[in-house]
Model the fold of this input.
Amino acid sequence: MSETKPPPPAEAATRAEAARRDLMSRLPAFLADLQTLVNLDSGTFDRDDVERVSAWVRGRCADWGAKLDEHPGGDFADSFAATLYGQGRVRIALLAHLDTVFPHGTAAARPFRIEGDRTLGPGTCDMKAGLLAAIYAVEALRSGGFDGFGRLQLICTTDEEVGAPSSRGFLERQAAGADAVLVLEAGRENGDIVGQRRGGGFFRLEVTGRSAHAGVEPEKGRSGHAARRQPAQCGARSCRRRGGRARQYH
Ligand SMILES: [Zn+2]
Done:
């Protein structure tokens, strides 16, 4: 696909090994950056918090001399794409989101920490470590002097955790024409990567009932919990019938 011929396998292996060594030497810096990012709350609805994480990432992309395209997020923080152009033809997009499901104050309550070989803290897995992996991957290519791509992008959205209401169109436009889009979400516990997802949906349910203390006089209530679970369970069953997997969030 590339105008510039792909390097012979031996040369590619040498380059990959050099990148691996470069990245391993930067592991302490990676962990320090991860600590910085995880300790910055960025709950989807806390616009200013997400903007702070965004400013940190954009600053890093600016160091590469990347072209920055920003997209106004309205109630959400602005999404952006950082684009580098190279000498080849293949167009690669790395996709990450800056928001987490954790509201303001979570990081102060349980900040980043390392236990054995695990890093913990709100949003570490979903997906600040993945976001940082994208940044370090681009930097490894740059330090190895590799520009055999046509276009290399890092696309960062700010409202993924609520279904990307503000960023979806921007993401689709930015990723248009990409030969590959790599989503830097965490893999599975056993190390597997996720090749595709079937989809997702968000539903808003309004339920009326009669309140009663669940521990003292549950028989007096018209259970809001039961009413709320029923439609969700129906949805889960019909999802499974269609070959999907359902997961409920309360
Ligand atoms: Zn995620």
